[in-house]
Protein 1
Amino acid sequence: MPGAQAAEEADSSFPIVTQVADVKLPQSGEAGKKAYLVTFEAQDAAKVFALGIDRTETPMNSTPDGKVAAELVLSEAEAAKLTKSGVNVQVRGNQSAAGARSATAADGVYKRYAGEDGLAAELLEISKANPSITKLVSIGKTSLGQDILAIKVSKDAKSKRDGDKPPVVYMSNQHAREWITPEMNRRLLHYYVDGYKSGDQEIKKIVNSTELWFVLSANPDGYEWTWQPEQRQWRKTLRDNDNNGVITSADGVDPNRNFSYKWGYDNEGSSPDPFNETYRGTGPNSEPETKAIDALMAKIDPRFVVNYHSAAQLLLYGVGWQVSTPSPDDHIAKALAGDHNTPAIPGFESQLGAALYTTNGETDGFVDVEHEGVAFTPEMSTCETASNWDPNDAWDPDACESIFTFPDDETLIQREFVNNIPFALSVAKSAPQPDEPVSSIGWTAPDLAIHKFDTSYAEKGDEQEVAVDAKQKLSDVKINYKVNGGKTKTDGVQRWDGGEKYGTEDGKAWYRQYRGSVDNSKPGDSVEVWYTAKKPGKGKVESEHFTYKVATNVEPGADVLVIANEDYKGVNPTYPAGTNAPKYANEYLDAVRAGGHKPALWDVDQQGVPDALGVLGHFKAVVWYLGDNRLTQDAADEFVPVGGGPTLVPDSQVADRAFQLTMEVRDYLNEGGKLLYSGETTAYYGPLRGVNGGGIYYGLKGEPQTPCRITTSYRDDCEILSDDFTQYYLGAYDRGSVNGVNGIVGTQPPLAGVNVGLPGTASNPINEAGGFLTTSTVLPPAQFPQFTSYSAAEYAGVPSGPFTPYEGVKYVAGPHQDDVYMRLTRTIDLTGVTAADAAKLTAQMSWDVEEGYDNVIVEAHTVGQDDWTTLPDLNGRSSQTVPAECEAGFYLKDHPFLAHYLTLTNPCTPSGTSGQWNAFTANSGGWQPVAFDLSPYAGKQVEVSISYVTDPSAGGTGVFIDDTKVVTAGGVLDAEGFEAGLGPWTLAGAPPGDHSPAAFLHTNSVFGNSVVATEDTLLFGFGLEQLPTQAEKNAVLGRAVQYLLD
């Protein structure tokens, strides 16, 4: 805090705090956000998620009539915007009579951070009262100059060097509005300190042998801000992003997205938009709050970190930047956290951090990788949960102001604290030997965890690799195996580096994965495998044994595996009775052979899911096809019951083998494999993809073999097969069905020059071909090279529409992105033209943008001068209507260059510092001719930009431009239809002062891509079997496989 007095400790870089002070907060520039109850149809989910909420803390609940209900923390402008779009929006909580009764029940338990009665002052009191076991230090300063305080609890806290004993960090309140978390941590601190003083032997043992660090508020500025009128729902820090001296929704950084590990990895796990609640900041570790936590971690290298958040009743651990990715140290985390059926915190859901959604730049991954600790995020109980505990108390769940406003009630807070104590203590007890966890639920971590499979496709003489996770303290790790019950053979192992994608350091502080090989087996052999090692103080330890069979149906020398995933035993579609083999397998096998390769077949219906090491890893490439299979479903998967009522949603669930197969293929790609994935419904995730977080269900939560049913939460009730695999591995960010197609036209390698028909098959006509939006369209390769993807082919016969080229096969496209300023720019030389020549710029333009909030403008200025203005459409389709809610300021704050054309008043005026406002908005109704008068620039050079400017959330399809011309009374001066290039136009960046990284695209039809390519994969939106002849199938597959193997 400003004015804090500190004394330097000889062995510490952190000053000891001896006095605390108050803080002066900045002024608010707008009314604070409130919690709203939002009800909407599933298909409207994009409008809601575009507002930049944190999905981890925003469960989507079902209503009895099958709609979606969610609590969203919104500004008044955001609430008004959703209402205008047709979403039902109602402010929550304490404005009702029930809320007033609840407020009367408040005990005043919560405390501010600063000031004489705040948390900081209490920390100082504790440290003074317990000098032998505590030390209070400042680990850094906030943006406002407050000390970020950490108190060390350990025997001889001041005299022992920090980090000498096994350290544990309990931190809280990264997100300002989560008041229950610093209170949880405050009580835990007292539990240790008071227990030590009272002689509690369990506590004394922990305090004597470990080093406990408590950071009650990792975001003191934000927390203080939530005590101001109308700011209770503030989440971020108080970083003044626009440096205007007041705090608005454009300010603040999410400190749980600002850490260096995987910072900005994608725009789903964090946001580049300052208005967004998960805004990651300007760079890794850019924020003082992040630097402070990093400094503490670097100083002590904690064994464990418990990072308290709210509100979702979750206990999260492990990899956050990629979904469904276990890591070796998860054996420790799971032993401490439990699982769905046995959670370490009763009533919580224990699971991988990215079982639901990804996060990047977050604390857990940073701790796990950068500081080799094991981190947990308990998401504490919601207001509704706590208010329901006692039906006779004054707390009404319907009156909760938000899920984050845990009741200010001593009884309820203490109950939540007590529920969390066993897990909190188990972490401290485990610190001396993290790989021998002392679990509150009695679980242990295995010394050796072997990866098992049933079948190997190893050829005679091939090695079969087998994986094991082993504690790092083990020595002499060996693979052991018997072939056909014979003599035991033993061999050494090698450390596995993590593969191409998964990373080399995730979760490997205490465990490592090793690989051993089985040699000299042959088809038909039965192989028993296990691992052994030497453990300090115990001697020999041994893993589970498992047995696999070496397949006999693999052609010697096979280098391409065909996975037949026709699901002919399934129900979507239902196959003729007696079907017992894949229909199209031979067509794929023959096509592989025609390309000079030897194929092998895996039939999922007969053989189950192939293992990445046991099967897939024996092949240079894999061809995975669906055939007639729309979705892999058993009879119980056809419909998902929603809301406990009569609503049954089709196409929303797959059998759990679909998830398993996807994960095995992803593991194979991570090991360096190559993949072609083919079928009309590849990357199709059904109608609930928008509300469940992006994916399709594959069973009940914790019981994936039991069909999904949504009773309360679209997010939490069922397991989800995420769309991240097709987005980030296969290059298809989105998919839509393209109707009316009749062929494939190759545009880039490996299919450049291909032009074949697409008649379909008798049982599977072309009626929902997959049209893909490439991931690189949304995440530009210059910023996200790890997701580079491109269109290798498009569809022929696509009916001309508003979002396909007006003429020819190419155009300039601006698919919608939030908060962008795209420019298509050129200079037009009119030095030889007079005003009487009536020069005009004409074009064909199609737009579908959010009415009022997103706009298309045509900007012009004399070259070398600052006389910027926007040009009206001579055909009357533009308007001088100012942007919706312009007076709120967010549009101009994000796009300050627009001040040339708009003046921020209430209401805004359609003129600015140099010119006038003219814009296109809403939906054009397809391609429209537009024209702009250039006669004022006769005799000069004029720079013209067609620009797409969007607000921070939601939007339509985008803007599309074709057939541009400069014309005069005497005829056409020049024309550009973008077929061979951009001609005089350039894809210019945003104007000065604008943070937008997005740009228009010179491309074929954005939404008609039939094949998407990445370095290692090809994704087809049709089946190879749907091509006309075997010769054409051979040619297309031959090119594809050669591309993958080159």
Note: The domain at 448-550 is CATH 2.60.40.10 (Immunoglobulin-like).
Protein 2
Amino acid sequence: MRSSTSAAEAVRQGERASALQGNYLDRLLRAEAAAKPRLRGATADNAVRWADSAPRPEPAPHGGRVRGKACVTLAERILSGFALAGALTYLATPRAIAVANRLRFHDEPTGYKGHERATPYLGGAAVMVGFVAAVLLAAGHASKTAPLLGGAAVMFILGTIDDRRSLGAAPRVLIELALAVLVWATDLGWKLHAGTGLDLALTCLWVLAVVNAFNLFDNMDGAAATMALVVTAGAATIGVVRGDAWLAVGAASLCGACLGFLPRNLSLPAARIFLGDGGSMPVGFTVAVLVMVAADTATATWRSLLVALLLIAIPALDTSLVVFSRRRRGVSVLSGGRDHLTHRARRFLPSARAVVLSLAAIQAALSVLAVLASQGGSALLVISAGLYVLVASLAIIALDTQKIEEFGVEGLTIGSRTLSKRAVVALGVLGLGAGLSPFFFAYYDATKWVPIGLAITLVCAVAIVIRPRRPGGPATLTLSGLLGLGVFSLLSTAWSESVENAVVSGNRWLVYGALTLLLLALVSHERRAAVLLASAGLGIAAVAVSVLARLLESDPASLFLTGRLNAPLGYINGEGCLFAMGVWPCIALAETRRHVLAGIGAAIATLMGCLAVLSQSRGTALAMAVSLIAVLALAPGRTRRAWGVVLVAGGVAVAGPSLLHVYDHHTAASIPAAIGHSAGYAALLASLVVGILWAVATLAWDRSDARRGLARAGSWLLAVPILIALVLAASSAAHIERDLKTQWHAFVHLTEPGENLPSAASASRSRLLSGGGNRYDYWRVAWRLFADNPAGGVGAGNYPRSYFQRRSTTEDVQQPHSLEMQALSELGLPGILLLGAFVAGVGWGAVRMRRSALRFPLRRALMVAALGMFTAWLTQASVDWMHLLPGVTAIALAAAVALVWPVRRARVGASELARSRLGRALGGRRALALGISSVIVTLIVAGASLSRQGLAQIYRSRAQDELAAHPAAALADVNRSLDIDSDSLQSYYIKAAALARFNQPRDAEAALGQALARERDNFVTWALLGDIAVRRQRFALAQRYYVRAHQLNPRNATLSQLARNPHAPPS
């Protein structure tokens, strides 16, 4: 079957090959002359120099001297700020104690609070006195100092009022957000070079999070002040290293103020004064601002975020632990409790002081790593941040198993009903998002599925930590297959030529695994599974109705490509698969006893069947047939269902002539509006008639007193159409045999390149029974790759290189159009075994669900819908690339979850389990913790890999957009992209094109040389080198490059022509 040549699919299939249609760099340079006046005086040399150099710190004062007066002055400023803040705070603390005692401003030892006697507040006043005085004297830079001190003062007032009168959450959050906006407006917030809105949003989120993290961490003597001391010491060190005097002095001042406060806050036997909210909130605000400034000095945006995370690692861990633990236990996050990191660590250490100093030492070590990583050590930074996230996740799991003494939570528990509503909303959003995905090309573009996948991965990690569940056997097998495919795809980078393709493929599988895991965490009973599938079905129905509406409008031709339904998804076979999957929720609805709902289900099923016919997709026809067999064979209640399918099929058959008439115009430039209208009205009329007939039949059935007899008669009557079909087949055996041989010959004997012979499909009104196409060639190459590399394949996503070398057609594809063949060719035996585990898990779940479907109508309906949807997707994915459409695949995964969600009940007695070592190992909390830890490690890998891919894509896309008008900016952005992901060939191509615009062919050639070092056998890179050689008038060299490209892609006509004559214009 020849795949669609729509614009969207052309991007998919021939992104590399299309670069050759007319000299890629020449096309990028076509507007060069017109664009030169817009460069605003930029020259080639300064643009290249700016783009190729990493961001550097501002020059040191006095001409960049690093010794002598300038350096001594900075040291004096730091020391004076530190000493003055410490001394003033130390002297002001006794006065604050006296004032608090006089005003009876104490923290009373009630409820969950651990101190034994009333302790004065107003520690924040003493810290503020020392800090403000030191910053005003030594920091300078009024434009930065004023908003910092002003915000800290507001936080001090707000916190002190809260200590006295206990404010609600709303005023605190609003004021914190207002201060965050102020910080951003004064250029102290995040600057990620990803848009003003994103910078502002992240600044608000950061200030809110850090302020409240320090507020929560102020739960033990000296905890918040000691942590602020260590964090600001790290920020001050970064300021010194980077030459930022304001940062160094400001951080040193807060560090000194905290040190001056600790003698009376970390004293023995107990603290003599507390920071209170009036101290922890301004300290948290100041830390938030200083860490943003410190992290912003990193050489890349993603490094800035990771540096910031390391600088506040322990407060972030404490907040995460508290939030996860309380949400898991159904306790309000805003309530008090002895469930903080400090309280849990106290069980392992001799005293509160030991706890505080131990956590401070860990934070100090992480701050050292942050300082080192801020200088550009990418590997160190990524490893440090990754290990921190891993250890923090494991610590949360381990510490949360401890028994917690809870206080003050009456009336604050979150009932299961509220959680149920939230789960239903989440499932509805996920289901609708999948069902409506055709309006967004099923999220095929990486700019869509990567951020969505990253969000799903993060939410999934939170969900399994908050509410860990032990899945049953089918769910475990399904998850193991999906996540295993993702991990093994990433591991295949070790032997893949294209590391980029392997990473993208692995990330996609990991997103599928994370989505499945999240759905399993949300689907705890059949009603939630029904919400999920109903939401997905509703989304598909909305797509179907929109297509019908457009068919009846003035321009129905815009829906079609070569006479086949293509819009809105943009890929013909994907459109057909979507409607084939959408039929089954409607069939399940049609089986309900409520005649109105049953009629609606039958009507929409008929509409989707008609639209599937309009796609003229043979894979869709096969998917419908296989899914019908699976549902009738496995799901109970087949008699009623079979008659419903017969009626729906009859309606589609009646509308068939008008539907097939559309394909008669597949060779025309456009489909006449009247033909489209005729097809639309036929589908609408057939749907209405089928819906009415089925609703009447359902009503008559419910009112009948002889249901058992009618059911028996209906079962026997089903034999009639089967007998008729057998008689017709027997009478036409010779004709059928001849057609089968003809179509098999058309399948295995490919049309020679350049030929355009008429086929049976082109001569008839339908292509559904034609065997012609290029699938045989795709699968032949894939099987040979597996035969050559059975142990691990050629690497995930690395099928194209070998295909272009070995193909027998001129079809440009990037995968073998088969899920199984792709797994075999790219991942070898491990890949097909992991895929088999995924499919076997779903099949196991379907067989197990059949038992309960016999007794419960809702489970029967779920089984019909889920089994039909998943089987239709799997069948068409076996002959196409449905698995590369995340939106369509998400629907199939939702169906898989509906089949595997039931948790297996333990059948083994306690005594038998106690006797079994294996039973104790697999059934205890340790096994659950080990499983959750393994999944969390996988999700961490997924999150890190997706973040890397997404950030690199942002800069690469921006560079592509800037290339024509602002090549200098494009160079800067593409170098940022390469700094994040140095394996992206597209980034090197953009860089080469930008350099060529400045008439720098040697630098452009060097960029392509870097691409060639990563993928030696990529024919596009060799062809682009030939293009540059032509621009340099070095035709002999160009011919050598073109010849090499032609050797790697011998069926490409343009390369063949250029290899013979590089002077020739591209055809």
Note: The radius of gyration is 34 Å.
Protein 3
Amino acid sequence: MSLNESIVEDAALEWFGGLGYAIGHGPQLAPGEPLAERASFGEVLLVGRLRAAIRRLNPAIPEDAREEALRKVLRVGTPSLTQTNRAFHRLLRDGVPVEYPRPDGSIAGDHVRLVDFGVVRANDWLAVNQFTVVEGQHNRRPDIVVFVNGLPLGLIELKNAADEDATIWSAYAQLQTYKAEIAPLLHYNAALVVSDGLQARMGSVTANQEWFKVWRTIDGQHDAPPQSLELEVLVRGVFERQRFLDLLQHFIVFEEDPDSGALHKIIAGYHQFHAVNAAVEETVRASGMADSKLLRQDVGHYWAGRMHGGQPGDRRAGVVWHTQGSGKSFSMLFFAARVVRHPAMQNPTLVVLTDRNDLDDQLFGQFQRCADILGQMPVQAADREQLKALINRASGGVIFTTIQKFVPETKGNRFEQLSDRQNIIVIADEAHRSQYEFGSHVVKRKDGTSYIAHGLAVNIRDALPNASFIGFTGTPIEKTDANTKAVFGDYISVYDIQRAVADKATVPIYYESRIAKLALNAAELPKLDAEFEEITEGEEQTSKEKLKTKWGALEAMVGDPKRIALIAADLVAHWEKRFEAMNGKAMIVCMSRRICVDLYDALVDLRPEWAGETLKVVMTGSADDGPTWQKHIGNKTQRRELAKRFKDSKDPFRIVIVRDMWLTGFDAPCLTTMYADKPMMGHGLMQAIARVNRVFRDKPSGLVVDYLGLGEALKSALATYTESGGKGAPTYEMAQAIRLMLEKHGIACDMMHGFNWDKWISGKPTEQLALIPAGQEHILEQDDGKKRWGQVVMELSRAFALCAASDEATGIRDDVSFFQAIQAALSKQNSNNLKTPEQIEAAIRQLVSKAITTEGQVIDVFTAAGLPRPDISILSEQFLAEVRGLKHKNVAAELLEKLLKDELKVRSRRNLVQAQVFSEKLKQTLNAYHNRAISTMQVIEELIKLAKDLDAASKRGEALGLTDDEVAFYDALAANQSAVIAMGDDKLKVIAAELITQVRKSVTIDWTLRESARARIRVMVKRILNKYGYPPDLQDEAVKTVLAQAELLSAAWAEA
């Protein structure tokens, strides 16, 4: 038995059944059926189930109010799919607001629950296959829809794993069609799933292709085994009923992009879901507010359990280490939303700590934009007095502050107690910084007196003696860092670089040193240490003393005009080569504001056209900085506008120079390259280079180019990372990418052995163009050449994009452009070459000779072969003669194969028998060709004959006096030659015409899936065949063929 889409569907339904879902068949629930649950195909909710659930879950609310709630759910639609989806999600999570009169005449306000999040069995669970939806002229049938209380919260689109053209991204493209054509079904959707039975990904209604992600665990304790079916893991891991309720309530959030204004729906990844649930339970334990017998005892990779020996009431919840770029801020948000609703915490107060104002603003802004999920609006403490007032409350609240506000007003004093409540949770962002220390030390004043300075962690403990502490970090805690562990405890969850890259939550980062290239002597620079990192951009403006120290000496050396000129020249050459191979943006990180400005000037001297839009400096400053700097010093609003533009991949602002700005908490996925000319180390270095690890379309990696000698600092960071249990390297050496590129280039050259492409560089345009079909011919002559070539060129292109600026890449650049041109021509011969918007707007660029382009577009395969572009539906004698005369016979065969497959694809939608007959002939011919049983010349003749026969078949309607649809039914009746002999053409034509008339009258929506409707049409067909004396012994087969033909045409009629 061959694998097909229905087998995948049946397997998925079996898994849902095992999870306790009832299984329904879409056509049985359709209008007019005995078990109908829909009044029309336009209804996307199962209203009866929803009404029953509302009644069951809200017995104390009057029926009129319950019906009003139902009406609000049914009328939730707005012109915007995303806005409607957000509006419904609020109703789902928080209940539908209603009002009704009390017996005393006053008005009561209440919320009608649509789902019981606390009791799984109180809800109605149903998975339905083949659920047809009709909206306007559009008729679509999603594969599986998951209903909870009659609400279509899950949608799964499946493809056949055995069909190489039917990938999960074909299923993704189908979802985009649903969004455009049957949007009401998506109004209520919580999660979208695409799968081919083997691979599976989940995303939201706003997610682009790259944000449909794998779900790797069922229970959260460990990854599913490598041989597991991804679809099974996803269905059992996400749709297990309690977990699905948890996901719906706590792990879906909507955020409006502050730059573009676009609304995005974010669903937690598996690492966030399980880490947050573990963190909440650890926080409850640490607070001592729950019976220890109620705490979960399970342990595993995502669930830390008692890993660090924490005891109930020890006030140390632990640390969540999720590598930069993997969604740490959202993990913090999901944690906050989850813990504020935990009954044991009794409406806790959350204090969110950062150590810098700009980070406080960023994180607060995100929580503020996503306040819906918190159920309250977060507040940012402007000063120490407001912080005291906000914390000194009975309960509740999400308060943002910097750690520096926990400093006593009088030096040497202890910080006053603000609250002794147990249900205060301190959430620290980047919980490894030196500020979190318990120690105290003596500080001498200038007048000779001294005072005791206490660590900030001591001050927070003094202020909040019974609070529980939890930390979130993107970089590991150093093994020697006793302070952080003393404050927070050990790891709750680790999501390292290796896992993030494997899940495509981030891309790998490559490292390239350009020091030797520029003959810069790193040894001459003063030794880098943590002292350099302490001087921030703001302090550089005000702290004149520090500028006289070795920082000042280093700054002078790094900012030497000759050195800046060298770097500027190298950077221009490097970036232009890199940008040619991969679309993206660059960030240049300098040591001081002066160097930022001087490097800008040097770059603009080399590339004056960059001065307008391409290149900008983003830094702070004051009026004291002088007139030449003022054009680079913007206010907060101007910097926000520049950030918006830089994040936009289409905006011409492509290169930014910074000192401190945008090195932490700044996400620009299209940023591919960082040029580092500033001393950085430890966590600061790790956070800075992570700016280039964000996922963006098909971006293969980020690149850090080093001009200052950061290699040792990176080695140290790697040692810390590995000691902490992290897997995967923070950066990979560029030499690795170069080795990979040269290896793939070697394989491609081996496949082109014996073929001379020197004219690609030195020849005339006509000679260059002629190389493309000749190159195709060379590849097509090899066993499985087309497939192997496509794979190696794709891998070579990705590797080349990583190291396009290297000497090695420059040396093979023209080869790569030639190989890509051949592959582009070959890929255009594929019948199934539709591209998604993401593929069209790929990050990796094709290197193409200008001689073979027209207005930026690669000339298509017909032009390259020297042929006019044919009208594919009319294979003319002239065109076929020109194909026969082509010099490159394998290319001619490929062209004919493409044209015939395309034509048969069209025919298969209208004429079943004709498409089957010709498809079988084509298959036999191609098998003989690919098995080398016939020569290339023979296959061309066979394909030309087939094309002529197909063309003649398309004109039979004129000769028979039948329409195309009538010809399709005629062919169904005439499929058996003995029927033609017994009845003759004329009688078969009469039967075909009557069948068309009667079938077209009888078909209804979904008739192909409803046995009762099929039975009626089967009887009608038999009656017509009997009426005209069709041979009884041939009737059963004829009825089957006619019904199959009717299915095809009814689909075409529905689209007409």
Note: The mean pLDDT is 81.
